[in-house]
Write a structure and sequence with these properties.
- By secondary structure, this protein is α+β, with helices and mostly antiparallel strands.
- It has one domain.
- The protein is about 20% helix and about 20% strand.
- It contains two helices and three strands, in the order E-E-E-H-H.
- It has a three-stranded antiparallel β-sheet with strand order 1-2-3, covered by helices on one side.
- Strand 2 and strand 3 form a beta hairpin.
- It is globular and about 40 Å long.
Length: about 90
């Protein structure tokens, strides 16, 4: 399993490029990355400013357009969302 802490991301900024983490996944231990219960939190920008998108792929979520959050995983997902909101450019958080 590949998992990094935000402190593990190398400082790769240069004069012409900036490295950003723009998507993270909350994965239930023991489940593969492609599990339909994994939650992805991404920074998106559709030309009107950055925002955070929360999604789950596969299963009923593609049709019904909802995500399922187990009460035991809420604090992890909430922390991940809070982190990604703070990473949005222009965020005042």
């Amino acid at each position: 399993m590949c998992a990094i802490q935000t402190t593990d991301v190398p400082d790769l900024d240069t004069i012409t490029h900036h490295v950003r983490v723009v998507e993270i996944a909350v994965v239930t231990k023991g489940q593969p990355l492609f599990s339909e219960m994994n939650t992805r939190i991404a920074i998106e920008d559709e030309a009107a400013g950055e925002f955070v998108k929360v999604s789950q792929e596969g299963g009923h979520t593609d049709l019904a357009k909802w995500i399922s959050i187990d009460p035991d995983e809420w604090s992890v997902i909430k922390s991940a969302i809070d982190y990604m909101v703070r990473q949005c450019q222009g965020s005042q958080q």
